[in-house]
Give the backbone structure.
Amino acid sequence: MREVRFIAAVILGSASLLAQGPPRGPRAPQTAKAAAPVDFTGYWVSPVMEDWRWRMVTPLKGDFASIPINRAAYDAGEAWDPATDEAAGLQCKAYGAPALMRIPGRLHITWQDEQTLKIETDAGTQTRLFHFNARAPANEAPAWQGYSEANWERPVRGEGDPRNGVPPIFSTRTGTRGKSLEVVTTHLRAGYLRKNGVPYSENTMLEEFYDYRTAPDGTPWFTVTTVVHDPKYLVVPFITSTDFKKQPDATGWHPTPCEAR
Amino acid sequence: MKTAILIALFAWGAPAFAQIDFTGEWAPAYHEDGPERLPGPELGDYMGMPINEAARLRADSYDADRISVVTEYECRPHSADYGMRGLGDLRVTREINSTTQELVAFHTYMPAWGSVRTVWMDGRPHPPDYTEHTWQGFSTGVWDGNTLIITTTHLKANYLRRNGIDSSDKRTVTEYWTRHRDYLTVVTHVVDPVMLTEPLVRSQNWTLDPGQKTQRMFCEYQPEVPSAPGAVPNHLPGTNPFLHEVADWYGLPYEATRGGAKTLYPEYKLTMPKPEKTPAAKCERFCVCSVLQDCNLHSVPPR
């Protein structure tokens, strides 16, 4: 009985000591740039090894394959007319955030400031801004790239990861801090998921997860998992993942305007 | 004595700190290449594949009757890498050592050909090169933050695409498993020195589906079309009459349908030739296809 009490005391004591940790003073929050677990900056290219005939060329009118559309989207896609879009100055409808990362091209990623990651694309000459520690202003106008709130992935619970200086005791947490960037985009202008007029609505919410890795040959890659939520035109969320390979420099960077066909 | 107990307590919980829980039933999202993965790829569709000339020549010789005639092809399982791209209801379980509480392995089950994989997480080495090659190969996993990196060797030759583009038994497959909320993304990075000029990199997605009940698959060998005993349906070089179909149906330049690394990069759009045939005004094949039930030749979503 005395042994049980002793062990319990040790457990509680050790947990208490660990919980206290070293003395802490007020700490200024790290900027998003300083807190970055990985470096996404640089030039990247997506070798098109998936969906080739829906990405490298404009698919035929009425080709909705792979997209979980409802009848309203089908009808809208059947009515697609690129000449009408051109006449209305809407050539960029297929270059909005829900579709942009799937368009063949190169990315240039930089930090615009300490809290804003910038992604520029040569295809369509678009710019996305990922705002850390920020919320969309109330009067934010809808735009092709919308407003993106970003976070470095955080643990579900903050304990148990030895790299945080807290050794595990009994159970260790699942989901250690990784190399992931989470982005939620709203305030989108209605556009196309695919160049042949498969629509998404202005109420679309876009979730993205950027995962960095190093390939066996040492080349950095990242994959962005894209989840498009649009009850107006989709029967379930539309999920794709697109792979990007790091480039040593700007070779191949070839800015082009949006094209409607 | 107290110190010893304290150390023992810390050691107790230490081993498996970098775990994401992949266990459960996962439903595949066929939101990429749906027609290839559901009804199956078109003949002569090599688009997006960094294949070499040998792989292309071999694919050109493929006759789809082979699956109906050759016993070894009739119930040929999908290998570890192709299985992730093909028909993929997925169940993941984990094996825990009951004494040490360490993660020993992940096990996966896919109903297509009853494919069972084991991913060893206990640090064991891969066997020597001369060891038997199997459909699922030999897999080991390590953690990198929230990503599980799986290396698979000892694979049998199988498919890169199930229209004659084959993989060799010399390939190595590296997978990157990441879970975000109830989404699972698996990147498959295939290095095949026999068939590819650069790695084939594709990524697949699943959503957690606790209600999914994975089924058992039966496959029986029986002749489906008349053929001579021992025949292997094939096309000799230059005689395959079906290779232009995919280009003509979808309004594509034939050259682009032949695959190869140069066709994968955005700059290929600048030099891509025009289609040989005037494209159809409208899609006519598998135009709505994101789940198996709706992926028919002429599906239309209900009102």
